[in-house]
Request: fold
Amino acid sequence: MIDTTTSGFRVAIVGPSRFGIGEPYAGGLEAHTAGLVGILHERGHHLRVFAGPEGDIHGLPVGVTPIVARTFDHLFTGRRDTSHPAGFCRHESDRYRTLVDGLRRCPDIDVVHNNSLHPAVVDGDPGDGSFVHVLHCPPFPKLRAAHRRLRERSRGRHVIAVSKALASLWDGVATDVIGNGIDLDTWLDRSPGPRAGAVWAGRIVEEKAPHLAIRAARLAGLPIRLAGPIGDHRYFDRLVRPELGADAVWLGSLGAADL
Reply:
């Protein structure tokens, strides 16, 4: 593995495409990618960052090259995080393939850090150890198949799982486990007085189940505050909005400081 505590590496970071990586973050993958960019930049590495759709403002110390066009936003209304409309899938796959092909031909890149969840980036890995892939989620068929193909053709691959439990779900795909890092100073509550209650933060979609978090808080006798963008309005209106009240308040989409 490359020792990134030594400055000066030329790193291409390939992030998620559907959402940008600026605050307020659309989700954990976007926040993780932005944090990775920040710390590598602080350590003196030379970064090229690819993430999100055209037109997004990221607020990072380096420029971000978009991956996909903005024109597909209307297709995502009411869809799950794990499903994408067909037109977007074709467009996204083409863009990732073009991006990876360009990175493979680029002489001034030492390592490609794949922080996306797209199989085209895995399939584009030349197998020479120059790509690092991070597993952020349980396996889904297309990404799992791509990693199995990579495992068959490359013994020198680098595939990181963010926990031992996640590595076990991927059944031999991960080559290393590196836990997700959190800057605890960012999350230190400096407000005076005691705290009582629960907080749920994330993108509001059914598979993340904030409506169950509300019910769990009530069973525990705790008020709860929820924060995050609405990813599925039909789900929000059907299962979350009816649960809101004095003891369950949705605060909208917040940046890290407000969280």
